[in-house]
């Protein structure tokens, strides 16, 4: 069995918000453990503010965790300085949501895609670098004459292809994708997903794929982790999770997807007015239609059931 290309264990991150007159601490990531295997996609889903992007930034070590451990392959990177991380960064790359914002408008496409090579393979000649960039652009379906053009000359879908080329030129083992297609229209989205799946198959890259779109999850991922209030509340193989969610929050999330369950919408499982999370006990209890007294007293531990796990005192059947 091969080892994970990315692993998080008990990772936590809090932010301070507000000015001195009204300081509060937000526990953006309360306790997250996950792993991504080579060539595998783990989808990370959950409502807005549940901490998905913070997990992405921790996984990429753009943020330092307050607690917990992070590995890139065999290498633990939780406590490394920016300087120590620099030579390792090529193994873990990122594709952003917004292809417009992620490319420098004043940088030619060739420079943008080849930038990583300048840093990580400084010995390459100019001609060699240009050849590598051209090959990479071809791989993502961008014409070779793009090299000396600027981002504004390309469509959103093409720019996302360029963003993917930029991430992949260093041949990373892991790609963190934070809503990579949500800024694109549906037909372009399908092309980009097909491209990502092909590149994954050909290069065996592990994907941590963050999305709101559960239909997309079924298409791209083998496993899915559901986040609520900074924690993973359920993790399971995709088919098992869609067939029978065990955590009430997962169930609510599936019911809220109109396309997935058109007729199930009648049952409103999550009250519209957002209840504050409990101080102790299950954080979902204030919103959970199945919560009982014990749910509010103590945090549920993970229950493992074969390939799935969930944190709930009274799981769904
Ligand atoms: N740099 C920061 N400073 C202060 N608070 C932050 C910071 N980054 C995130 N947060 C807070 O942490 C929580 C989780 O945010 P995060 O962006 O990780 O959520 P998300 O699941 O990615 O949401 P979305 O689906 O809207 O992208 C939110 O309450 C957010 O306000
Ligand atoms: Mg986000």
Q: Radius of gyration from the CA trace? A: 21 Å
Strand content: 15-25%
Specify the CATH architecture of the largest domain.
3-Layer(aba) Sandwich
Ions and ligands: adenosine-5'-triphosphate, magnesium ion
Average pLDDT confidence is: 89
What is the 3D form? globular
Question: What is the level 1 CATH name of the largest domain?
Answer: Alpha Beta
The helix count comes to: 10
Number of domains: 2
Q: What is the strand arrangement across the widest sheet?
A: 6-7-8-3-9-10-12-11
Largest sheet: 8 strands, mixed
Instruction: Give me the strand/helix succession.
Output: EEEHEEHEHHHEHEHEEHHHEE
CATH topology of the largest domain: Rossmann fold
CA-to-CA gap between the ends? 32 Å
Poorly predicted runs: 260-276
Helix content: 25-40%
- Assembly state: single chain
Written overview of the protein:
With 317 residues, this protein is an alpha/beta fold. The protein has two domains: 6-243, P-loop containing nucleotide triphosphate hydrolases (Rossmann fold), CATH 3.40.50.300; 247-317, no CATH class. The chain has ten helices and twelve strands. It has helices at 52-59, 82-85, 109-120, 126-139, 156-168, 186-203, 214-220, 238-243, 248-255, 293-297, and strands spanning 6-17, 24-36, 41-45, 67-72, 75-76, 92-95, 174-178, 206-210, 223-228, 231-237, 302-305, 308-311. The strands form two sheets. Strands 6-7-8-3-9-10-12-11 form an eight-stranded mixed beta sheet, with helices on both faces. Helix 3 (109-120) crosses helix 4, helix 4 (126-139) crosses helix 5 (156-168) and helix 5 runs parallel beside helix 6. The longest helix has 18 residues, at 186-203. It is globular, with a radius of gyration of 21 Å. Mean pLDDT is 89; it is low at 260-276. The structure holds adenosine-5'-triphosphate and magnesium ion.
